[in-house]
Write a structure and sequence with these properties.
Blueprint (H helix, E strand, L loop, with lengths): L1 E10 L2 E11 L4 E5 L6 H7 L8 E6 L2 E2 L7 H7 E4 L11 H13 L3 H14 L15 H14 L4 E5 L7 H16 L4 E4 L3 H7 L2 E6 L2 E7 H6 L4 H11 L1
Parallel strand pairs: 3-8, 3-9, 6-7, 7-8
Antiparallel strand pairs: 1-2, 1-4, 4-5, 9-10
Helix pairs in contact: 3-4, 3-5, 4-5, 5-6
Length: about 240
């Protein structure tokens, strides 16, 4: 469903991605991990064109992301994205946050968009909060609304960019529980995270990055039991300890 072929990216003279290649099949849950500054978030943002690349190719469900003729808004509507800092519209109610993209991008009627949005709001356990504004919710609740908003667009895959890193520790599990449920229902997912418990429970693939390069791209059990590189072994020892 997602194929990343030999992509490289620079910010000025600094190379942030170095010849990265991987692929995600339908139903895969890929966790991307590594130290801060390793290029994880940049890699995941290339999948829907939020970060353009200077070399290589990204193909999503048969569409080349970097082609000038590609309709990026239409592509992004099919690839759900959940950010570190929620990115909800603060001046809109929860319900309006859920319906705006459906109406503007997918052309749904207000009634259809509301029904769809509230279905997913209920799915993340927040139906009673539909009339509130984001500022009236906890961080964990806001992130769950962001997940419901992405799901309302009927995505073929979901991208998560460190979805729990801005949350207080007691709020992390309520977001991870929603993500575990999505994975168990067969949603194709790429997840940048430091939550190794989530990776062990849900992922079937793990990509380990350092200094802009993919050092390991392997099955979950193989990564946790016998990482191939010393850098990955050191990372796991530190983060699991």
């Amino acid at each position: 469903m997602i194929e990343i072929k030999n992509i490289s990216k620079w910010y000025g003279q600094f190379q942030v991605l170095k010849d990265c290649s991987t692929k995600v099949d339908k139903g895969d849950v890929m966790v991307i991990c590594g130290p801060s500054g390793s290029g994880k978030s940049t890699l995941i943002k290339t999948v829907n064109g939020l970060e353009p690349v200077q070399q290589g190719q990204i193909i999503v469900d048969g569409t080349s992301v970097g082609e000038k003729t590609t309709d990026l808004p239409a592509l992004r509507a099919r690839i759900g994205m959940v950010f570190q800092n929620f990115e909800l519209f603060p001046h809109l109610s929860v319900r309006d946050n859920l319906t705006l993209g459906q109406i503007k991008v997918l052309g749904r009627s207000a009634d259809e968009a509301t029904a769809r949005g509230l279905q997913y709001l209920d799915r993340v356990g927040l139906l009673a909060q539909q009339d509130k504004f984001p500022g009236q919710l906890s961080g964990g609740q806001q992130q769950r609304v962001a997940i419901a908003r992405a799901l309302s667009m009927d995505p073929i895959a979901m991208l998560f960019d460190e979805p729990t890193s801005a949350l207080d520790p007691e709020m992390i599990n309520e977001v991870l529980d929603v993500m575990v449920g999505l994975a168990q229902e067969g949603m194709t997912m790429m997840v940048v995270t430091h939550e190794m418990g989530f990776a062990r429970k849900v992922a079937n693939r793990v990509v380990f990055m350092d200094q802009g390069a993919i050092l390991e791209d392997t099955a979950k059990d193989e990564f946790f039991q016998a990482p191939k590189t010393e850098r990955a072994r050191d990372f796991l020892a530190r983060i699991i300890h």
